[in-house]
Specification:
225 residues, mainly alpha, 2 domains, two-stranded antiparallel ribbon, 13 helices, 2 strands, 62% helix, globular
Length: 225
């Protein structure tokens, strides 16, 4: 009963969390859960409430795709698992519903990992698998802006190409903006949050911030023409 009471307090919902899987709830209930949960994502200190939800068993019931990231290492060097990495990433993006959901779900495709001959994790293609999984989550909770969230997850590794090869010509950056349009800057913001949450080296972040500044300058020049 204590667990049920806590989850009602956090989500402020008028029902008890007594069923074992989201499919046992009605569509209206799931939409209401989505609305309240989005409110939690948008809070300034969202990690605390997300951690409370984790402790009381929210994620296995309502977002099992995210819960599946527990105990899957985020990186070889980092002891934090992909689940807690994702919760931390939410904390490092601006309070935008689209970015918050994208940060939360950006790595859920890692649950469908492969292992190499050396027994190491192989996460190649996780962004595409993750986008497919996210589509189902966003649909069942009727989250608005789901099309943009889907795209951010699918392409969230693309700004890292700049971080790995920081010699893009101006025309290449313009092509990046043209390709992703209004999602160009959110993609960079998501990549920055991803790196911060992975405890990456500062030089990686420096290159992403450079890219963000260049994109801002190009966008500003377009507005002033």
């Amino acid at each position: 009963m204590a667990k049920k009471g806590k989850i009602q307090t956090v989500l402020n919902l008028q029902f008890q969390c007594e069923k074992e899987h989201w499919s046992n709830y009605g569509k209206d209930q799931l939409i209401k859960i989505g609305e309240k949960f989005t409110g939690i994502l948008l809070q300034e200190n969202s990690y605390h409430d997300l951690d409370v939800l984790d402790q009381i068993g929210f994620f296995p019931i309502f977002i099992p795709e995210l819960n599946a990231l527990k105990n899957i290492p985020q990186t070889k060097q980092n002891s934090k698992d992909a689940f807690h990495h994702s919760l931390t990433a939410v904390q490092h993006v601006i309070p935008s519903q689209t970015l918050k959901w994208a940060a939360l779900l950006h790595d859920i495709g890692k649950a469908h990992f492969r292992t190499t001959a050396k027994g190491e994790f192989d996460f190649r293609g996780h962004e595409f698998n993750g986008a497919k999984l996210a589509k189902g989550i966003l649909r069942r909770m009727d989250i608005r802006g789901s099309a943009d969230i889907y795209k951010l997850i699918q392409f969230h590794t693309h700004p890292l190409d700049y971080q790995r090869q920081p010699n893009w010509k101006l025309e290449t950056v313009k092509n990046f903006i043209h390709k992703y349009e209004h999602l160009a800057k959110p993609l960079i913001d998501l990549a920055i949050a991803d790196k911060i949450s992975s405890s990456s080296k500062s030089e990686y972040l420096e290159e992403l911030y450079k890219l963000k500044n260049i994109v801002d300058e190009i966008s500003y020049d377009k507005k002033t023409i």
